[in-house]
Write a structure and sequence with these properties.
Layout (H helix, E strand, L loop, with lengths): L4 H12 L4 H4 L6 E5 L6 H17 L3 E5 L6 H8 L7 E6 L5 H4 L12 E16 L8 H10 L5 E4 L5 H13 L4 E4 L3 H10 L4 E5 H9 L4 E6 L24 E9 L4 H16 L1 H8 L4 E6 H22 L5
Parallel strand pairs: 1-2, 1-3, 5-6
Antiparallel strand pairs: 3-9, 4-7, 4-8, 4-9, 4-10
Helix pairs in contact: 1-10, 3-10
Length: about 325
């Protein structure tokens, strides 16, 4: 449901009620949103859309600053050590909860305790796609190939320790199957080789393969989402296709330094939830292969905590380290 501007204004006024004048004025100056990726990528695009919405809703500039490098560690570290006043935020993604699984000595912050999780505002479901070297049309047929020919087939990812690597290994363990990992230096080359038949399959974010699926160059077998996707209405979920309990979504959301003032946290939660529920948000995210979802406060914190535990255990069992 779209949250109309008058309702948003009233809600923000209620949040400010009962606090001091200084608290109610948040934000009194421009707010920085740090993104750990280069401009133009999905995290950056969603961050800028959120910044524009927040600027209009709260009457102050929300300015996106890109700080790529070290698998987003540089951006997260910059926010973690910033003053806890609500004026420096991190727009992060799922890879943030993978940092503890891959790094131990170089990270100078705690991926959960150093931050106040505000809201995850969008998600991109994982879709299993195959290329011409794996001529199957259903998930059942795909699993039949893996079980009949263990260790023969391959899967592409944007790199060792990437989200694609983690979610594929989760699937293989859940189904008791095996494939050979072919890591690339980014999603574009992985998708190119998948279309060319050099690799058999990929568990990819929807946005990275949607054009190729729509054009028929790749075949989608299942989506890791609670229900079918509007972009791929004929493709079943993993549960519908017979694999229960498999979840693999990439989230995008807002985090602040730990212990920011309550009024700042509440106002940020309110505007993030309003952004996620706005009709214009759904339309803009659809083009990116994403969907809106407002998971805020304690629910967002619990989700992050669960992911950190799960990815850390998986990385340990696989012997993954990226120091």
């Amino acid at each position: 449901m779209t949250l109309a501007r008058p309702f948003l204004a009233a809600a923000l006024a209620l949040i400010g009620g009962g606090v001091t004048t200084a608290q109610a004025a948040y934000p009194e100056r421009p707010v920085r949103i740090i993104v750990g990726f280069s401009p133009g990528g999905p995290t950056d695009v969603v961050a800028r859309a959120f910044a524009s919405y927040a600027s209009q809703a709260l009457g102050q500039s929300f300015v996106v600053e890109n700080k790529p490098g070290a698998n987003t560690i540089l951006a997260a570290e910059a926010v973690a050590k910033s003053p806890a006043d609500g004026y420096t935020l991190l727009f992060g993604a799922t890879n943030h909860t993978m940092i503890p699984a891959l790094y131990s000595t170089r990270v100078k912050f705690d991926a959960l305790r150093s931050f106040t999780p505000i809201c995850a505002v969008a998600f991109s479901p994982t879709v299993l796609v195959v290329g011409p070297s794996m001529p199957v049309k259903t998930l059942d047929a795909f699993l039949g190939k893996l079980k009949a020919e263990p260790g023969k087939h391959t899967y592409a990812t944007p790199g060792t320790g990437s989200s694609g690597h983690f979610v594929t290994e989760q699937f293989l363990r859940l189904t008791g199957t095996s494939m050979n990992h072919i890591p690339y230096k980014g999603a574009a080359q992985a998708v190119s080789d998948l279309m060319g038949g050099q690799v058999d399959s990929s568990f990819a974010t929807l946005g990275s393969v949607l054009p190729q699926v729509e054009s028929g160059k790749l075949t989608a077998l299942a989506v890791a989402a609670p229900q079918r996707l509007p972009q791929l209405p004929d493709i079943p979920t993993f549960a519908q296709a017979g694999v229960q309990g498999y979840a693999a979504e990439a989230w995008y959301g807002v985090l602040a330094p730990a212990d920011i003032p309550a009024d700042a946290r509440q106002r940020l939660e309110q505007v993030a939830a309003a952004y996620a529920s706005a009709a214009g948000t759904a339309k803009s995210l659809d083009a990116l292969g994403m969907q809106p979802r407002g998971t805020c406060g304690d629910a967002f914190r619990m989700q992050m905590s669960h992911e950190i535990d799960e990815y850390s255990a998986l990385a340990k069992s696989l012997g993954l380290k990226a120091e």
